[in-house]
Amino acid sequence: MLKTFKGGIHPPYNKELTKHKPVEKAKLPQKVVIPMSQHVGAPCEPVVKVGDHVKVGQKIGEAKAFVSAPVHASVSGKVVAVEPRPHASGAHVLSVVIESDGMDEVYEGVKPPKPLEELTPDEIKNLIREAGIVGMGGAGFPTQVKLSPPADKKIDTIIVNGAECEPYLTADHRLMVERPEDVVLGLRAIMKATGVSKAFIGIEDNKPDAIEAMKEAVKGFSDIEVVPLATKYPQGGEKQLINAITGREVPSGGLPMDVGVIVDNAGTCAAIANVLKTGMPLIERITTVTGAGVKEPKNLLARIGTPVGELIEQCGGFAGEPGKVIMGGPMMGISQSSLEVPVMKGTSGVLVLQKSEVKAVEPMPCIKCARCVDACPIHLLPTYLAKFAERGMWDEAERYHALDCIECGCCAYVCPANIPLTQLIRLAKNRILASKKK
To answer: Is 411 a known ligand-binding residue?
Structure first.
């Protein structure tokens, strides 16, 4: 019997659009917009100015805080602006704008490090930090921070998240099929950096070719096991993945390290492998450009900072009248108001829906059916939390564990009354967190 978690849903996955399409290298953009905030934690401080010439892999944003990650130039060329620009979050974020010279000249400081066998744990963590590697499944948590838990948190298990449960997206799927050895190399580096001797790679069973490729890649490594998982959303959530594979349950308000586990995305592992093999920091990523709204859906290896409009053009442009462009997938992605928003470290997909697919619905009164309760993978009471949010009852929302919500969207998806449960709970979370900062 395949491993899974309690709760969750089975939305249409729509992965057939791109799951068999090999990764293509995207065209070199003429201009990139590189935000100083592409991660959880403190934004970077620009270390370049207008008029400077930069090269591929050169650091352009310095991380001054522990919970942060530096950013690097993804093209060679001239810095033409250092100013706030549109960001996937909907805000305007300080960004470095580089006009490409078309030369793609690599920065002199980009050199391969010593072989993994010769690196110490601290050297591995420092390489990861300096390369600006963050969680590439979308969360964007700085990886070196995750690999440096407090001394009282004993880690005994590493889990690689290869579930990719979000509908439409196939970036990790193609990565595991085409470059399984990179996922394994990055995982081995993580294991050495943390001193952990047991690791699992969790993959949903709707990706049989990825499961086979990864099983082949881990032959000879008795301490790494590939675990097929039931296909169910949100199987790729950290807490759900940990529970499915190990049976452990992360406590309310807790983190994976509280149960001895570190979870890293398959893309993050491959990015670490690239640093080990070439010395190149994180300057590009696989992004699935998909949906009925594009003529030719593809998996593209895109440079960080590429405007999403350029990626859509490389997929033949819009098919029909576009109704919505989403950074990410339909469940946890964010709708965009501009095609100038750039690809970032966590941009696993760009979903384009046709206008006919986007329909406004009017919410109705709750009918107390409890479908949202059954679907919630965190075992919350979404309808209560939504009522608290509507009435501004933030203390009550906190007592009912609103901060544990992972905003997966399961509750809103199954609600027959079309109540925007996820959005209301998100509002409650934001208000609670804001009050704690005062």
So the answer is: yes
408 assigned ligand-binding residue: yes
What is the distance of C-alpha 51 from the center of its chain?
33
Please provide the DSSP assignment of 315-360 as one string: TTSBSSSEEEEEES-TTT-EE-S-TTPBP-TT--EEEEEEGGG---
Would you state the pLDDT for residue 379? 95
Q: Is 372 annotated as a binding residue?
A: yes
The residue type of 68 is S
Give the bridge partners for 322, in sequence order: 354
Distances (CA, A) of 41 to 38, 63, 67, 140, 161: 9, 10, 5, 9, 22
Give me the phi and psi of 276, to 5 degrees please. Answer: -65, -35
- In this model, does residue 138 exceed pLDDT 90? no
Q: Which two tokens stand for residue 110?
A: 């980009």
Domains of the chain with CATH codes: 112-278 (3.40.50.11540), 371-437 (no CATH)
Q: What angle do CA 136, 138, 140 make, to 5 degrees?
A: 65
Mean pLDDT over 194-206 rounds to 97
**44 annotated binding-site participant:** no
